Amino acid sequence: MSENDSTYDTSYDTDVYGYDEPMVGPLDAPEKPSGRHPVNIGQLVMGVAFAGMVLVWALVQGDVVETDELRWLLPIPWLAAGAAGLAATVWPSRKSRV
Predict the structure, then answer these.
(1) 5 vs 35, which has greater pLDDT?
(2) 3-class SS string, the chain
(3) Band of residue 37 on the pLDDT scale cut at 50, 70, 90
(4) Contact 39, 46 (CB under 8 A)
C-alpha cells in the first residue's frame, strides 16, 4: 500500500475475487496449509526394490559375492521393500493416535 491510506480503492469487487480486500503483494495471499505430502507407498516399495537389485548387481559385478550366492542374496531387496512398505503403511496411523 502507499504511504497515504486515503487512496484506498473502495470499488473493489469482492464477488469476482472472493476476498474482502485487494491483495497488494505475495505476502498478502491467503495461507495454504503446509506440511509434508503423503507418501506414495507403491513408489517407495518399487524404489527400494530397484535400489536393492542395483546393489546386488553391483556386488556381483564387483566380484564381492559369487554367483552361487545369489539364491539367498536376491530375496533381500524384496524383503527390504516389503518392510519399507509396511513401515510406511503403519507409520501414519501411529502418529495420528498421539
Answers:
(1) 35
(2) CCCCHHHCCCCCCHHHHCCCCCCCCHHHCCCCCCCCCCCCHHHHHHHHHHHHHHHHHHHHHCCCCCHHHHHHHCHHHHHHHHHHHHHHHHHHHHHHHC
(3) confident
(4) no
